[in-house]
Every structure is written in structure tokens, then in C-alpha cells.
Amino acid sequence: QVQLVESGGGLVQAGGSLRLSCATEGRSSRYNVMAWFRQAPGKEREFVAGISWSSNTYYVDSVKGRFTISRDNAKNTLYLQMNSLKPEDTAVYYCAATTSGITWTTVGEYDSWGQGTQVTVSS
User: Fold this and answer.
1) In what order do the strands lie in the sheet with 4-7?
2) Other C-beta atoms within 10 Å of 102: how many?
3) Are strands 33-39 and 46-52 parallel, antiparallel or unpaired?
4) pLDDT of residue 30
5) Residues 22, 114: contact at Cβ < 8 Å?
6) Nearest-CA neighbor of 114 among 11, 1, 3?
7) DSSP-based three-state secondary structure for 3
8) Cβ distance 51 to 32 under 8 Å?
9) CA–CA separation, 38 vs 43, rounded Å?
């Protein structure tokens, strides 16, 4: 396991934007897949977006066209640009990393997690 530290969460009005960052300890390029998950109160943690070492990306349908995931291996940092935010995007957002990457969307596949950052979208 390695340390992942998220930042960039906050309170924003519907339609606004936020950019989340996830700094990784060590070389982020060693991870086959890095991803963002989110967990709203009373709900299970869900996959939001993932990116492979070769920059292939995958998004959950609800965020396609609004969120963009990227990674800067030189800075060992993962990003999530979130535009056109909606109240239903409100959740704690977690950064995750895996040296595997078979399904991308399964929580149990990831062996390193950040502490989470709160995103709140007001209507």
C-alpha cells in the first residue's frame, strides 16, 4: 500500500466546477489503474472514473461529458475535473490505486485508498 492524499473538495453551487487532486507517495506510474470513487450518505461507495497507465479512461454514465480524469506521472498526481456539478454529485470522493485493474469498477480490486475529500453541491 502507498499513501494517497486527496485535496480540492468543497462547497459549490449547482452548475459550478471543482478540481480534485490526489498526490501519491512514490511513482504513480507503477499503478496500472488509478480511479476516483464516491460515497454519499447511506449509499455504497461507487466508481466514478478511472485511468490506466497508458491514459485510457472510463467513466460511469452519470458523469460522462461533465467529469474528466487525468494523471500526471511526472508529478505523481491524479486529477478529477468536475464541471456542471449537480446536487446528486454530493459525496465524499476517494482516490484509489491498483496494480491490477481487471474490472476497474470494483471497490475490492483497489489496495490503496486516500482518506477522502468532501464535495457538496448546493441547489
Assistant:
1) 4-7, 18-24, 77-82, 67-72
2) 10
3) antiparallel
4) 78
5) yes
6) 3
7) coil
8) no
9) 10
Please state, in angstroms and rounded to a whole number, the distance separating the CA atoms of residues 110 and 22.
15
Between CA 110 and CA 35 the distance in angstroms is: 9
CA dist., res. 109 & res. 99, Å (int)? 9
Q: Phi and psi at residue 42, in whole multiples of 5°?
A: 75, 5
DSSP code string of 52-119? ETT--EEE-GGGTTTEEEEEETTTTEEEEEE-S--GGG-EEEEEEEES--SSSS-GGG--EE---EEE
Q: Give backbone dihedrals phi and psi of 92, rounded to 5 degrees, phi first.
A: -90, 130
Q: Averaged in consecutive runs of 10 residues, what is the pLDDT profile of the chain (123 residues)?
A: 89 98 82 94 97 93 98 90 98 94 89 95 96
DSSP state, residue 9:
-
- For residue 77, which of 98, 102, 97, 59 has the smallest C-alpha distance? 97
